[in-house]
Amino acid sequence: MKRVLITGAAGFLGSHLCDRFIAEGFHVIGMDNLITGDLKNIEHLFKLEHFEFYHHDVTTFVYVPGELEYILHFASPASPIDYLKIPIQTLKVGALGTHNLLGLAKEKKARILIASTSEVYGDPLVHPQSEDYYGNVNTISPRGVYDEAKRFQESITMAYHRFHGLDTRIARIFNTYGPRMRLNDGRVIPAFMGQALRGEDLTVFGDGSQTRSFCYVDDQIEGIFRLLHADYHMPVNIGNPGEISIKDFAEEILKLTGTEQKIIYKPLPEDDPMQRRPDISRAKELLGWEPKVKRAEGMKKTWDYFKTLSKEELQKKEH
Ligand code: NAD
Ligand code: UDP
């Protein structure tokens, strides 16, 4: 039976990856220090013979006994409020954590896929963003801790590939959403849906003209799975090119949730990217992949998930 190590397993994407690899017949080893994740996301897997969980911080030496076919490195805070609250850990998990996992991959002769991000393009001056664009990142802004950690992560991964011949993959993930996002993680979809559920007004930052392109989690996981199995070492954008302004998105959410609240405006966070849309030509060509789930359908599933959360979870505020 093939064995896969997934870091960040108790988080949003990591937990969906665990489900996918279990369904594909793998022995799955999940690793997480629970700094932004939640065991609830994987508790359904604990009873399975072919699932193991290591409560471990990947910035310290990582050891897993036995063979490993694949490593998927997804551990990292991913929401702006998380990485602004824990900036040093964010830098460490992108740098030291990635170094540890590359070392483990070398030791085990395993293929490794790392979760990079559209944030490597910073506040992009090129639109849409293709993999050839070098980006526009402010190294020293508060947000820079995440962007630079991920840029370093890509550099060290390519260095291991070129210098040690390691079998590497780099997924540049664009805004992804769906069930198991943390309601209070500050990202725009949980933020708006949490506000809708609590009967609060929806907080649009800036004038809401900034854009994002949202990818449903099932599409994202399929893209990552295909990339892992493709013979390609350079970065690949995985995301949904359907772009929308944050103001229009807030209006869509008000319609979807059928709530009476208004939109209110708050200051735009420093270095908040003004536009973002993936060019997915490379993924289409290499992986025969493109997203299938329409925003209306994905948002409905996400709303149905958030509606099942308890009152206590709803009241837990983190910002
Ligand atoms: P998440 O916060 O839900 O999950 C991240 C998980 O990593 C959490 O369970 C957290 O506890 C764990 N973690 C953090 N630091 C760790 C450490 N030092 N050791 C062990 N575990 C640690 O976030 P997510 O949305 O699932 O993101 C997962 C990955 O995908 C991240 O690397 C993120 O940068 C990347 N990504 C996500 C998106 C997105 O839209 N969701 C977009 C781009 C990139
Ligand atoms: N945003 C907003 N209101 C909120 C939370 C976020 O207007 O309550 C905006 C945020 O400023 C950004 C966009 O929504 O322009 C997406 O934010 P998110 O944190 O989800 O992702 P990222 O900025 O990392 O793409």
UniProtKB/TrEMBL annotation:
InterPro entries named among the record's database cross-references: NAD(P)-bd_dom (IPR016040), NAD(P)-bd_dom_sf (IPR036291), UXS-like (IPR044516)
Signal peptide stretch: none
Membrane topology: Single-pass type II membrane protein
Entry keyword annotation includes NAD: yes
Cofactor: NAD(+)
Pfam families with a match to the protein in the record: GDP_Man_Dehyd
CDD domains: UGD_SDR_e (cd05230)
Keywords: Decarboxylase, Glycoprotein, Golgi apparatus, Lyase, Membrane, NAD, Signal-anchor, Transmembrane, Transmembrane helix
GO BP, sorted A to Z: D-xylose metabolic process
NAD(P)-binding domain residues: 5-302
GO function term, MF aspect, one: UDP-glucuronate decarboxylase activity
Presence of keyword Transmembrane: yes
EC number: 4.1.1.35
Pathway assignment: Nucleotide-sugar biosynthesis; UDP-alpha-D-xylose biosynthesis; UDP-alpha-D-xylose from UDP-alpha-D-glucuronate: step 1/1
GO cellular component: cytoplasm
Cellular localization per UniProt: Golgi apparatus, Golgi stack membrane
PANTHER family attached to this UniProt entry: UDP-GLUCURONIC ACID DECARBOXYLASE 1 (PTHR43078:SF6), UDP-GLUCURONIC ACID DECARBOXYLASE-RELATED (PTHR43078)
UniProt record similarity statement: Belongs to the NAD(P)-dependent epimerase/dehydratase family. UDP-glucuronic acid decarboxylase subfamily.
UniProt-recorded name of the protein: UDP-glucuronate decarboxylase
Organism for this UniProt entry: Lentiprolixibacter aurantiacus
Native organism taxonomy: Bacteria, Pseudomonadati, Bacteroidota, Flavobacteriia, Flavobacteriales
